[in-house]
Structures are given as C-alpha cells and as structure tokens.
Amino acid sequence: MDGPVTASVGWLVAAPLAGSVATFLLRGRRGASEAVLLLTALAAALATNGLVARIMGSGPYTVEIGSWGAPAGIEWAVDDLSAAFLAVALPVWIAATIVAHGLLHSPRSPRDARVFRKEPGPTARTFWPLWLLLWGGVNALFLSADLFNLYVALELAGLAGVALVATAGVLPALQAALRYFFANVAGSISFLTGVALVYHRYQTLDLQLLRSAAESDASTTVALALLGAGLLLKAALFPMHAWLPRAHAAAPAPVSAILSALVVKAPVYLVLRLWLDVFHVALPPSVLTFVGALGAIGIVWGSARALRVERLKSLIAYSTVAQVGLLFTAFPIVHAAGSRDARWGLVFLAVGHAVAKASMFLAAGGLARAHGHDRLDQMTGFGAREPLCTYAFGLGGMSLLGVPGTIGFSGKWLLATSGLEVWAVPWVVAVSASALLTAAYVWRVLAIAIRSAPEPAGTRPLARRIAWSAFALAVLTVALGLGSGPFVEPLP
Amino acid sequence: MSLAAWVFDGTLTLTLVVLGWGAVAARDPFTGIVRYITFGLMAALAWARLGAPDLALAEAAIGAGLTGALLLSTLGRMGLRQASRRAGEALGAAPRAPTPLPGMAQAWSGLVLGLSLAIAAVIGGVARTLHGRNGPGLGPLVDSLRETSGIDSPVAVVLLDLRGYDTLLETAVLFTAVLAVWCLGVIRFRRPPWPVDPVLASLARVVTALLVLVAAYLLQLGLHGPGGGFQAGAVLAAAGVLWTLADRRALRLGESRLARIGLTLGLGAFLVAAVIPMLAGRSFLTYAAGSAPAWAWVLETFIAVSVGLTLTALFMGGLSEIAEDEAEERAP
Amino acid sequence: MTSLVLYPLAGVVALALGLAGLVTRPHLLTKVLAFNLMATGASLLLVGLGHDGTASSDPVPQAMVLTGIVVSVSATAVALAIIARLSRLDPDGVERSD
Q1: Which residue of C has its CA nearest to A190?
Q2: CA torsion, points A332, A334, A338, A342, in degrees to nearest 10?
Q3: Which of A58, A314, B256, C55 is the 20 to 30 A CA-CA neighbour of A432?
Q4: Which of A81-90, A108-117, C55-64 has the lowest mean pLDDT?
C-alpha cells in the first residue's frame, strides 16, 4: 500500500503520461494545454511531497506494481538516493516548463531566434506531448527497481529527448539529434546485453533480490561492464561525450536545461546504483580508478573547450561534459570511503549540478530570445539589460564552483573530507581543482556581461517569467546549500 | 542432440550471420536493406526454432516487414533528392568533398571490427557458461501464477499482468515515435483529384478485409497462445501501408480526430488501467482480483488498434498538408 | 551442450558486426541497419541463453524481446524521420557521417 491516494508515487509516472495524451488530443489549444500542464505539475508536486514525507518519516520503501511483487512483477523502490533526485527534479521541471511556455508564446524577435522555429518545428501540438513524455520517462527511471524496466524507461527518455532536440528543425539540430540518437541506441543495446547476462545468471530482474544474490564472478563482471558502458555513453563520460555538446547546444533552451540537468543525471544515478550499490561485491576497484581518470580528463577537456567556443549554449553544454567528469571523479572516493557522507557528497554534487545547470540554460534561453542569437561576442554588456538572467547564470556558476553557501560546496566538502580520511588524495585534488577550471569559463561569461557596451540592434525585452524562473532555480542552489548545512560538519 | 538438429541450427545461424554481415557491409543501401529484410525473416525462423512463436510473428511482421517498408520508403525519399542534386551537379553545381584515402578507411574498419569481435568473444565466452546451466528462469513461477491471474498464455500473462508496466511504457515509446515523426515530416501534395492506382486500390480492398480477419483472429488467440495485440496491430498496419500506397487520400487520415484518438488508445487504456486501482485505494496497475482476463482482453484490443494506426502513421512519415500553390509533389 | 547454443553465439556475433557497422559505415541508412542488427543480436542472446535442450518454457525473455522489437521499430522510425528531413536540407550529408 502506498499511502493516501493523492500522495501515491504512481502519479509521478501516470500524470505526465496522461498529460501527454491529453495535450495531444487537445491539439495544443492554448487554455486547455495550460490547464493540463498545471494539473500535471500539481499531481507531480503532491506525489513528490508524499514521497519525501514518507521517506523522512519511515525510511526507504518499495511499492509493488500490480498485485505481484518481485520476482514475478516489477517494483518501485524509493530510498534516500532516488528521493533526492526526484525531489530536485520537480522544481527543475516546473521552471523549465514555465520558460518553455514563455518562449513558445511570447512574441518573437524580428531576427528569428533559432531557438524556436515555426515550421515544422515544435508547434504546441507535438511539443507538449513530447515534453510530458520525457517528464514521465525520467521519473520512471528514478523510481524503477527492475533491470528490464530500466531499459524501457531509458529508451523512452532517450527517444523523447532525441525528438525534442530535433524539434528545433534546423540542420545543426537535426545532425546533433541524429548523433545523440546513435549514441543513445548503442548505449541502450549495451545495457540490454548486460540485462540478458544478469537475468540468466541470477534468474531475476529485481534490484533488491539481485543485491542479496550478487556474487563476484566472470559473468557478473562482464554484465556490469556492459551495463556500465551503456550508461557511461548516455552520461557522456569522456571519451564518449562527443554527442552531447552539439545536442545540448542545438536544442531549444528549455529542452537543453532538462537534458543537461536530468536526462544526463539518470545514467549517473544508475551507475551509482548498479556499480556501487546492487553489485558492489562484483565490481573490481580498478574499474572505478579508470572511470575516475576518464572523468578527470573530461573535466579538463570540457572546461578547455568551454573557454574557446563562441556560443553561450555551447559553453554551457561543454560545462556539462566537465561536470559529468567531475561526478565520475568522485566515484572512487565514494567507493573507497564507503561512508554515508561520501555518498551524500556525490548526491549533493549531482543534484546541485542539475539545478545550477538548468538555471544556466534557462537564463541562456532568455538571453538568446532577447538578443535573437547566443553569440557571446555580440552580447557584450547583457548584465545591464538582463540582470536577472545574469544573476541566475552567476549564481548557478558559483554552485558549480563550490562557493560556500551553495549545495555545490556542500557536496565538494563532504567528498573532500571523506576522501582525505581514506587517503584518496588524487581524487580529492581533482574534485577541488575542478573549481579553478569552472571559474575560468564562468568568469568568461560574466566578464562579457559586466563590460559596458551599447545595446546591440534588435534586442527585445524579455518576458518577466522567463528571467524569474531561471533566477528562482539559481536561488534554489543556495537554499539547498543552506539546507544541507546539518550534513556538513566541520573537521575535528 | 541429433545430427539433423546441428545441421539445421548450424545452417540457420550461419545464414543469419552472413546475411547480417551482408546487410551492413553492402556497398549501396538498397542491397543492404533487402538483405536485412531477409535477415529478419531468418530471425523469425530462429524464434520459431527457439520455441517463441509470438516472437516469430512479431519479428516477421514488425522487425522484417514494417522496418523494411520504413527503410525502403526513406530510401525512396532520399533517392529523389539525390537525383535532383546530381542533375544540379551536371549543370555545374558545387562538387562534393574529396573522399579520404581508401587505405585509411579500411584500416579503421578493420580495427573497429577486430575490437568488436574481441568484445563479442568475451561476451560469448561468458554466455556459454550461462547457457542452460543456471535453472529454468522465472518460467515455473509464471506458470504457477497463471491460474491466480486467470490469463492462459504465459507470454500474455507476463506482458499484460505481471509486467504490464513495461508494456505501458512500451506504448508510450510508440506514441513518442509518432510525435517525433509528425514533428519532423510534412508531406505536401497537390489539390484533388488524388492519384489512385486502380490495381493496387482494388487489391487493397480485398486484402484489407482478409487482413482484418487475420488480425481479429490473432487478437482473440493471443490470450491462449501465440498472437496478441502487437501482432494483430502489425497485421492491421500492413493493411494501412497498402492503403497508403494505393490511394493518396489515405494520407489525410492522419488529420482526423478519430485517427488521433486511435493513436492514443493503447497508452490511454493502460493509463486508465493503472489509475483506476490507485483511485480505488490499491496500487498502480493493480487489477482487482479476478479481473485480469477482462483487462487483458480490453488492453489487447486497444493495443491492436493503436499499434496498427501507429505503425501506419510511422510509415506515412509525417503530417500531410495540401499545397496552397502548385508546389512539387513529394512522394511519401 | 545442444545445438541451441549456436543461437546466442550468433547473437553475440551479430552484436559485434552491428557495432562495427554502426561505427565505421558512413551511410546513415546503413547505420540504421547496423543498430537493428545489434538489437536482434541482443534479443537472440536474451532468449537463446535459457535453453537446456528442450524448447523454452520461460516466457519472461520472450516478453522482453517482444517489447524490444516494438521499441526498436519506434527508434528506427524516429531515426529515419530525422534522416529523411536531413536529406532534404543536405542531400550530400547522408552518405558521409558528419
């Protein structure tokens, strides 16, 4: 049983999917679509609230779907890890939806921004259904406790993501969408092969049962490699990251926000779940060292490219590559320390990146709409014209850096202290040094913002709610940071 | 097992591998697609051999048939562009970029192939240790639950009851595909009279009636044996594809409200089945005791209709619209 | 060891060939064929591993593969729609991979 009806966790999946059917049948009619979006957000909020309340009250729990539990049926499992991601996903989705709605319906600039095109691009008829399908798919990913169910959810989220990237309609978006597609499908099939091996080795697909039955042998290790390879490809870990910058830069800004914040996080969460939780007995530690090293290279590579690119959204996309690298650099620390603190450090980093990156992309979307383009060299001085977007970008950047007070700082602090306790020095250095590289490209943008310059021709004022949504998310990184204070104890 | 089994299985698997290699290594895509369709039919044979008749039906209809139709249709669309591009080139348009040295490309291909086969060898080695050694899987458990559930066919009880949530997400994936295709493709054609191929149209009329019968049969059979909503839907889609080829008016069906409702029937039915229990105090997708066969029947029927419409819509390749002017007609 | 072991092994080979094709072949349609080949290979592995001499009695892998076939055709349709539109905007780009 799942508690009162309104708080049932099933709404997290049922509401967005039902909303997508509804918006499709309503043919994107203005008032009706808004009503559906509101209802969906409300249902998701109630379900998330119920979930968080229940887990804080009575701890982790599972929900049986259908009248059958594992191993015959599928279950949802909510623990502190998945609850953290689901709780953070809610404000990100709401903010991104507000911005998407604003961009879709606000008057366009004369020099048509390639953010949203009219034909045959994302008309409201197919955009909102796809958007809501992605929402449902991502929620399904975080909730699921069944290996094959994870595969189907990965395919749903991946396909919806590809479609949303392609809605921009222009040639670079289509090429980027296709690359994203091939990366996704290769990752999915690798994951499926891993599922096949796990099923035939252990005769079950349920993660809880697998956790108790897992043993360290050749077939399990190969299966973990396949599962991991698929997920790492979807998470864009160096060197399998090539698809990400173009896809996230070419997509409409709210889509990029969700892709970078949540769709890329889900594979990271799944690697954490499968490698360090369910199958941790079968994981050779050298694999984590290898993955951590790739992550470190990713930090350097992503940050270096972010300093060179000409477009704001490309910069933010390369920042995602760097930040994903950072997350994987933390994996060896979590494994070596084995402590709750280290795990929470990684979760704070991941969750903080989700919120910060979403706010940065939404701010970039607003700036692109205001200017008609997102070329950095032609945006000089935007700080004075669009202060909210600038603050949003700056605050988000500070959370990525790890400025004290933000959740990024809490994450780095926990990881650094746990890492030092077990002498995982190189990883701690990598986690800390990434701040310097992040600062470099964040400063690059802020410097352009504060330099005074005459207003470029063709600049239009931006709808207030777009800027405010981006700013609100950025403020959330600080709120979360302050809220995570109790977790962060000073060194003795 | 007997020598005959080895010979049969050896030949079939060898054919599979050779056809698969041929499909991917073919010089021109058309040959590759044809080889892939044949590969799909061989795979259907393999499923039958492996005791999975549902999969054989689905692979033949969807994996080989509809996928092949989609591929050929896309190739045809591309072919028109390239023909016009080559015509343009002959008139002095920009030449294509020079291709890299063939030696480098071959070395790279060889390296990738070698690496892939090495990975395959590792997986294969592990697979051999797992083959048939670790137990009968969840089969016996499913068997024991069939009576409680009330659904006869083991595959159906897994698809619609035990793991119905997977099938729900699967209908969502199908829906996503239609949305993506509609968002990306527009088929423009001139005002009426619509071109109709009379021979194909009369064939379509006859065959459609037969196909609907076959689909209905597969549907009702599906709860007791091989068959079911997806296979029935694929057969209906075959009729849909035939109509699309025969009569351009069929393309306009994508606009109709009935068609739109039909496309969402599968996902919609599953969501209803999932939400009603929640409102009644049970968990997500939890059928009331004994009601599983009824739900399964409803779900299968709705899946069949929506899968048929979805696959047809995927083949049509986009929303249709009538050109305001005498714009060039693009073939679907 | 029965002759049925050949099927999962063929599946693994198909996986390898598909992967190689996906990475190396330039034509976009060939890449689509390649990932379909990979998917069928993974499916053969999934269903084929469960046999120990008699025909399978385990419906769970069969249900999984059925879902997989439907998901594959959906993915193929999306990829082909993108490719078709790409070919309209950039006819040459289809023959060389980016």
Answers
A1: C42
A2: 150
A3: A314
A4: A108-117
Q: How far apart are the CA of A122 and the nearest CA of chain B, in angstroms?
A: 7
Length of chain C: 98
Phi, psi of A76 (to 5 degrees): -100, 140
Please state the domain extents for chain A.
284-492
Give residue-wise pLDDT tens across range A221-236.
999 999 999 999 999 9
Domain boundaries along the sequence of chain B? 1-88, 139-332
Hey, are the CB atoms on A159 and C38 less than 8 Å from each other?
Answer: no
CB contact under 8 Å between C19 and A186, yes or no, is yes
Check B165 against A5: CB less than 8 A apart: no
Q: To probe the interface with A, which of B122, B163, B261 has the most A CB atoms within 10 Å? A: B163
Identify whether the C-beta of residue B311 lies closer than 8 Å to the C-beta of residue C69.
no
* Rounded Cα–Cα distance for residues A205 and A209 (Å): 8
Structure pTM? 0.93
- Is some CB atom of chain C closer than 8 A to the CB atom of B170? yes
Burial class (CB in 10 A: 0-12, 13-18, 19+), A107: exposed
Closest listed residue to residue A41, CA positions, set A92, A90, A107, A113: A90
CATH code reported for the domain at C3-89: 1.10.287.3510
Residue extents of the structural domains in chain C:
3-89
List A311's β-bridge partners, or say none: A375
Closest CA to B136 of A223, A200, C11: A200
Q: Do C12 and B123 touch (CB under 8 A)?
A: yes
Q: Which residues contact A401 (CB under 8 A, 6 or more apart)?
A: A408, A435, A438, A439, A442
ipTM above 0.90, yes or no: yes
